[in-house]
Structures are given as C-alpha cells and as structure tokens.
C-alpha cells in the first residue's frame, strides 16, 4: 500500500519536491493510516486536530490520541476546540456544515501561519463513491458525478485510491492505533444511510462495486473535462469580465434557451443549481430588474445584459466626518483638501473629484448609501431631482445603483459621489475657499 500511496501522489502531482504537508487527523482509522503512510514515505509533516465538542469525553480522548502520536513521532501538533453547536445555531447551519466551515477555515490558517504547502485530508475510495451516490440521489450535472478531486487548490486527498477494507487491512497489519467515532453508525445521517443501507444492497448485485464505480468516476471526470472546455469557449464568446462582475449578452444567450443543459453549465461555476435553471431562463426572457440569487452570486438583468456579481453583505454603514482628516478613514475616499480660490483656478472635469464651496459646508458631514426619497439639485439643472430618477437618467444598472453613496452636509446632499455635485454647493464668483474631495469610485 505504501508503494501505491507514493505512486498516487506522484501521478496526480500532489506535492512538489521538499513540500511540507499539514495532515488533518481526527484520530479515526483513515487519518491515522494516512499519517503512518506519510511518515514512512519520508515527507515533512505536521498534525492538525479539531475538537468539535460534540461527543463529550470521547472528543477529548480523540484529541489525546492524536497528541500522543505526534509527541511519539516528534511531529508539530496543532489543535483547536470549537463550540460547534453554538456556531451552527448562530449561522443557521447544520452541524455537519458548521463543522466543515470551522475546520477548513482553521486548517488554512494553520497552513499559512506555519509555512505548509498543502493540506492532506484522508478521504478514501468509499467516501468518493458515497459522494457520487449522494449527488446522484439529490440531482446533479456531470460534474457532481465526478466525485472528489485528488487535488483541489491547497487540499490533497492521497487516500482516494484505497478502499475502506484495504485501509482496515493495513491498520491491522501494522497495529495502528485509532478511535472509532460511534456517530459513523448512525443512519440518521445521509452519508451513513448510503454507507450502511444502500451500498450493501448494491454490492450483492456487483461485489466489485468500489472498483467499478471508481472506474466510472474516472470516465465521467474525463467527460466533464471535455464538456468544460466546450462550455468555456461558449462562455468566452458571449461574456466579458471586469475582474469582479461578469456580463453576458442577452441576445447571444437567447440562442441557448432551448438547450437547458448548456445554460446550466454556463452558469454552474457561479453557484447555479439545476433547479434554478428554469428561473434563469425566465430572467433572460424577462424585463429589466429580474434577479436571482445562487449559492455564491447574484444574477441580474439590466436591459440587454445579464450581470453576475459575487454576493456582497449589504452594509448600511455610514461615516460621520467631523473634519477633513476623518475622510482618510473612509476606504473609497482618496483625499480631501481645502484650497484658496485664486486667478486661474480650474475645476477638474472629473466625476470622481468634487469641488465644493467651503462656505456652504456644515460639519459634521455624513457619507452614506442613497435611499428612496433622497433628492438634490444636480449641477447643470435648475430643478431638484430625485436621486432614483437621476440614476435612471444616467443609465445606472440596479447593481451599480446599490453601490452609490452620497455626501450630506447640514441635511442637504452635496454630492452624489462619483457622479454629480449639487448646484447649491458649486463654486461661485463669491467663493473664496474650495473643499476638494477625490473618490476612488
């Protein structure tokens, strides 16, 4: 098994020469066998253990086992104790999802803080097959049938080649200590239902189920790569990115309205689920303003464009400015200075720069998001205008509108930041001092 382990790491290009590996070790049989294999293979490693405080003394005994193993083998040891139930309740997550978020975030922080190149987790061949069956039952595209990847960013899975029975045989042969998590037998969990109730029935039909499905996963992965290249070419031809948002051309997208699978694959990398594909089609055909939230993005229709943007936590934060120096603490303000008006002074023709009559400014100033009912007197116009109407006039998309801030002085809006100042604050013949504010956006 050691030879297979080393070859699997090499074939999948998991580790560069001299790489340092952080081993995630629960104390169960899989992670303890993985640790033993890494030691025998001669890699430089450290051990990281999460105590999720879910099984009382059993959780503490798991941690103690891993700690002792690290000490006996002179390996760096890192541990953390989480209040998993409280975190799950606070974040409205299942216990399993809460534990996943907690451990992977912590593992990555340990990796960065201690100079490890990769993080190794002990998923095995059976785990991969169970993932395939879970996704199949829930409904998925091709990518959901390709199982877990041997390498995923900084995560490696060097035991995917080994079945659970092979791991047990190895453990027995070398007398490797481990602790059994009794919750692994509880069939209230979906994965355990698959493991203990479904797979035994399938193995009666095909005794070589693990190897057969592993080969199927490999073929599906190759198919998925072909589909991905095909879809990527289409995506590049009908969309463009500014590094944050991605914009699709509606007219070009309409060609694929009768090809639901193509639409799903085009938007799958942005968190779209199969069940949301019909809603996406309605948005493409619908009016401006239609929107849909996926697991990771918002999809918004604006005229003849479909705009994707990462989910942002909407903030109602406002900044109170008691003097010019306070503006240095505002992320999107570049500078704020006062200047005496002299002969030859030229007002910059730049929307990101506001030149305001200092005499009209009443501190403290407030910078906040605009809201319905806000109005101002746009420079160049005689009458007042609602900001909502002004943003429509200058053809701001719904996404862009949400990011607009205003500068408020004495209850009056002096500047729709990055767009237009209020004419009441403009430089006049009587102006002696000007407040110049520069914004990033």
Structure write-up:
The protein has three domains: 2-212, HUPs (Rossmann fold); 242-310, no CATH class; 319-439, Phenylalanyl-tRNA Synthetase, Chain B, domain 3, CATH 3.50.40.10. It has 14 helices and 21 strands. A six-stranded mixed sheet has the order 3-2-1-4-6-5, with helices on both faces. 28% of the residues are buried. The chain is an alpha+beta fold and 441 residues long. The two termini are 58 Å apart. The chain is elongated, with a radius of gyration of 29 Å.
Short key terms for the protein model shown above:
3 domains; 39% helix; alpha+beta; Phenylalanyl-tRNA Synthetase, Chain B, domain 3; 441 residues; 6-stranded mixed β-sheet; elongated
Unreliable spans are none
Question: Mind telling me the CATH superfamily name of the largest domain?
Answer: HUPs
Please, what is the average pLDDT? 91
Oligomerization? single chain
- CATH architecture level-2 label of the largest domain: 3-Layer(aba) Sandwich
- CATH class of the largest domain reads Alpha Beta
Largest sheet: 6 strands, mixed
Instruction: Briefly note the structural class of the backbone.
Output: alpha+beta
Beta fraction? 15-25%
Envelope shape: elongated
Helix content: 25-40%
The whole-angstrom Rg is 29 Å
Number of DSSP-assigned strands: 21
Total number of distinct structural domains: 3
């Amino acid at each position: 098994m050691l030879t297979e382990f080393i070859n699997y790491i090499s074939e999948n290009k998991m580790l560069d020469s001299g790489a340092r590996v952080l081993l995630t070790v629960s104390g169960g049989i899989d992670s303890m066998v993985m640790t033993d294999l890494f030691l025998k293979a001669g890699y430089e490693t450290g051990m990281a253990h999460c105590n999720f405080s879910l099984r009382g003394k059993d959780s503490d005994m798991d941690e103690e086992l891993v700690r002792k193993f690290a000490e006996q083998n002179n390996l760096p040891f890192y541990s953390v104790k989480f209040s998993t139930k409280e975190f799950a309740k606070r974040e409205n997550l299942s216990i399993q999802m809460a534990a996943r978020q907690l451990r992977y975030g912590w593992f990555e922080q340990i990796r960065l803080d201690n100079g490890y190149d990769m993080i190794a987790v002990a998923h095995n061949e059976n785990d991969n097959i169970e993932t395939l069956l879970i996704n199949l039952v829930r409904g998925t595209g091709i990518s959901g049938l390709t199982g877990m990847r041997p390498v995923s960013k900084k995560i490696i899975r060097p035991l995917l080649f080994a079945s659970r029975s092979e791991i047990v045989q190895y453990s027995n042969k070398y007398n490797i200590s481990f602790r059994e998590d009794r919750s692994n037998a509880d069939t209230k969990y979906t994965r355990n239902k698959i493991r203990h109730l479904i797979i035994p029935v399938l193995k009666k039909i095909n005794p070589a189920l693990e190897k057969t499905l592993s080969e199927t996963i490999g073929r599906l992965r190759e198919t998925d790569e072909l589909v991905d290249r095909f879809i990527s070419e289409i995506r590049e031809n009908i969309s463009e990115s500014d590094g944050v948002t991605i914009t699709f051309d509606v007219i070009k997208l309409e060609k694929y309205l009768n090809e639901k699978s193509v639409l799903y694959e085009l938007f799958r990398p942005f968190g779209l689920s199969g069940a949301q594909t019909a809603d996406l089609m309605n948005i493409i055909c619908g009016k401006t303003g239609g929107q849909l939230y996926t697991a990771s993005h918002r999809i918004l229709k604006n005229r003849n464009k479909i705009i994707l943007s990462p989910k942002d936590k909407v903030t109602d934060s406002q900044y109170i400015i008691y003097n010019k120096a306070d503006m240095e603490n505002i992320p999107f303000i570049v500078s704020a200075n006062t200047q005496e008006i002299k002969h030859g002074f030229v007002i910059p023709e730049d929307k990101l720069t506001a030149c305001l009559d200092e005499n009209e400014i009443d501190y403290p100033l407030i910078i906040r998001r605009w809201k319905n009912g806000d109005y101002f007197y746009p420079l160049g116009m005689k009458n007042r205008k609602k900001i909502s109407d002004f943003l429509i006039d200058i053809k701001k998309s719904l996404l862009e509108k949400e990011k607009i801030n205003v500068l408020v002085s004495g209850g009056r809006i002096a500047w729709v930041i990055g767009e237009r100042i209020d004419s009441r604050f403009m430089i006049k013949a009587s102006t002696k001092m000007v407040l110049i504010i520069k914004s990033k956006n």
